[in-house]
């Protein structure tokens, strides 16, 4: 089995650091090391053990991985001051882990997009540190609108950095999806599609071309609706900006991971984004990811089409 150069989608929790910030809502249980975040224990134990990720990478031929915190750590309800404190805690923790394993791991730093000024300040603060890029929450709260002009200073800074920016869905707030695990199964792809469409309608990918936006889960629902966005542009539908780059053309500026769960979904992502722009991602250690790349049909199809 040939090796995989890079996994753009893995998660870790900096739970091993000695001190939590002085914030309400987060405790670490001394008995088992589990973090209880806003009343919910985060029980996926692999998240707390970077050595387990490294062992999985070795077993599956993955040479390097980019790590970001999982959605329970986004904590989008925090006010601006608390969000800044919390982001510094998780980002410093990820950097600490990545520094210890610099040949294998790179940190994607969390930016709380619900507070544009905080996100900008953090990007400035960490701009010169040895990180691999940033991870942003798609959706989760109505305040997150990637097309908001308030984010322009951030896009300018990230464009100047030539930043890799990973978009990962946050909690879906649609109450209709609370049953049958649909908040994840349907809500996550939907939130990614909304975020990508907001960027596209604001012409962000064209105006800030050095930002490498990468969408989780093969772009979510975005590849399936991109043609419809194009149709709305072509027919001048109300509210669709006439001056933006055509949606199907702009989509080729995005990257996405390969977590489509079926070869047909992968082929659609490759058609919309371009085959070289669909990268390997595992979503380690979660079961909705790709735990066994060597036996996964979608990964097998991705390997056949991936650019060496």
Automatic annotation (TrEMBL):
Matches recorded under InterPro entries: ACMSD, Amidohydro-rel, Metal_Hydrolase
The keyword Cell membrane is assigned to this record: no
Domain of life assignment: Bacteria
Positions of the Amidohydrolase-related domain: 7-297
Keyword Lyase on entry: yes
Assigned keywords, A-Z: Lyase
Pfam families reported for this sequence: Amidohydro_2 (PF04909)
Protein name, entry field: Amidohydrolase family protein
Native organism: Paraburkholderia guartelaensis
């Amino acid at each position: 089995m040939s090796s995989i150069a890079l996994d753009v989608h893995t998660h870790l929790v900096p739970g091993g650091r000695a001190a939590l910030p002085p914030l309400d809502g987060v405790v670490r249980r001394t008995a088992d090391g589990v973090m209880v975040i806003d009343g919910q224990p985060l029980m996926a134990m692999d998240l707390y053990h970077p050595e387990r990720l490294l062992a999985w990478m070795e077993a599956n031929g993955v040479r390097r991985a980019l790590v970001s915190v999982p959605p329970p750590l986004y904590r989008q309800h925090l006010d601006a001051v608390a969000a800044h404190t919390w982001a510094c805690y998780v980002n410093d923790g990820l950097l600490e882990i990545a520094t210890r394993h610099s040949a294998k791991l790179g940190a994607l730093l969390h930016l709380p997009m619900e507070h544009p000024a905080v996100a900008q300040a953090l990007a400035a603060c960490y701009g010169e540190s040895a990180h691999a890029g940033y991870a942003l929450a798609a959706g989760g709260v109505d305040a997150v609108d990637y097309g908001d002009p308030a984010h322009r200073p951030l896009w300018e800074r990230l464009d100047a950095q030539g930043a890799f920016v990973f978009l990962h869905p946050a909690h879906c707030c649609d109450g209709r999806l609370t049953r049958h695990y649909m908040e994840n199964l349907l809500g996550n792809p939907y939130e990614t599609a909304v975020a990508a469409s907001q960027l596209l309608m604001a012409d962000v990918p064209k105006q800030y071309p050095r930002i490498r936006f990468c969408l989780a889960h093969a772009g979510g629902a975005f590849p399936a609706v991109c043609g419809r966005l194009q149709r709305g542009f072509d027919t001048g539908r109300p509210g669709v900006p006439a001056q933006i780059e055509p949606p199907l053309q702009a989509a080729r500026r995005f990257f996405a991971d390969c977590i489509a769960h079926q070869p047909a979904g992968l082929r659609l992502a490759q058609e919309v984004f371009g085959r070289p722009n669909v990268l390997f991602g595992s979503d380690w250690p979660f079961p909705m990811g790709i735990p066994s790349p060597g036996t996964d049909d979608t990964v097998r199809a991705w390997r056949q089409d991936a650019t060496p």
